[in-house]
Amino acid sequence: MGFTENDLTDQSGKTFLITGANTGLGYETARALALKGGQVWLACRSEQKAQAAMDRIKTLAPNAQLGFVALDLGDLEQVAQAAEHIKSLGKLDVLINNAGLMTPPLGHTAQGFESQMGVNHLGHFALVGRLADKLLADDTRIVVLSSLAHTGGVIDWDDLHANRRYSAMKRYQASKLANMMFGLELERRLRKQHTQAKCVICHPGIAATELMRHMPLPIEKLATPALKLLFNSSAAGAWPTLLAATEDIEGGSYWGPTGIRETRGKAGPARIARRALKEDQAKRLWDLSVELTGVNPGL
Q: Which NCBIfam families does the record associate with it (predicted)?
């Protein structure tokens, strides 16, 4: 058992918005949903790159329903503008928070946040927060992408923006823990509302995507036969996202690859690290995110 793209059902009549959909997991998710008849909005920084991705998809499905939304998760003013655009698009069935940075050199967002926490978590928090009324009204499913790395994550509450010290991998792990905690806390808060909206979390395993461009070794040097056994392709890495976005599953559930310690293979239930289940810490993160972004979802 397990879910692959072959199990994806017809998505005609449904509208999806995917952040970071021009490359990697986001592109593969957009491609698969479009090929099954879904209307897909690609929310990306670069219109040129988004258009190139849409052109690629249309070579496979000339009648694919695709569109572009300008979104830079590293600038909260631009997030606010994107949210207003999204509100004008009509009903939104599924919002997929896919975009992210992985282990870049130290950098900061427009508002001064450490780039990985700023883009991976705070940018998405602000987007969801500004869309909260629409998501509740549309009964939208929110999909949050976390990572296997969340299991080693520790949030440095005293140095959230890496002003004193910076380890790219530790900051990535922390941002992915934040994604997990946010997804679970969002689901808890949604359950208190009169809505069918829900939040589902997933992870891609170890997928060879553009996210890994900042890793010490180029992916092509890692692509030995032995390491290929550990790496999902981008297409296979998108299977948990497709499951989370389309299947009849419970809010708050977590999905990922089911083979070799959740690194690859068909999609199915995944394990949540104990530290991500601490509700007091999730509430602390939520309140801090409201303070830092200036966006209160009102949930």
A: PRK06197.1
Radius of gyration of the chain (CA): 18
**For residue 232, what pLDDT is reported?**
78
Centre a 10 Å sphere on the Cβ of residue 84 and count the other Cβ atoms it contains: 10
Cβ atoms within 10 Å of 284's Cβ, excluding its own: 15
- Using alpha carbons, select from 288, 20, 16 the residue that is nearest to residue 178: 288
N-term to C-term CA, the chain: 37
| CATH no. for 9-293 | 3.40.50.720
The confidence band for 207, taking pLDDT boundaries of 50, 70 and 90, is confident
Q: How many residues does the chain have?
A: 299
> What is the rounded average pLDDT for all residues in the chain?
94
User: With 70 as the cut, is the pLDDT of residue 120 above it?
Assistant: yes
Q: Burial letters for 141-165: b for 16+ Cβ neighbours within 10 Å, e otherwise?
A: bbbbbbbbbbbbbebbeeebbbeee
CA distance 117 to 101: 9
Give the Cα separation of 141 and 238 in Å (integer): 17
For 14-43, write each residue's pLDDT tens digit. Answer: 999 999 999 999 999 999 999 999 999 999
Please check the confidence at residue 114 and state whether its pLDDT lies above 60: yes
What burial letters (b/e) apply to 166-193, b meaning 16+ CB within 10 Å?
eebebbbbbbbbbbbbbbbbbbbbbeee
Start-end of H helices in 93-192: 115-116, 124-130, 132-138, 168-190
Total Cβ atoms within 10 A of residue 113: 22
Q: Is 172 a catalytic residue?
A: yes
Q: For the full predicted model, state whether its pTM sits above 0.90.
A: yes
Instruction: Say how far apart CA 208 and CA 219 lie, in whole Å.
Output: 7
- Exposed, middle or buried: residue 104 (CB in 10 Å: 0-12, 13-18, 19+)? middle
Q: What is the dihedral of CA 153, 20, 72, 78, to 10 degrees?
A: -110
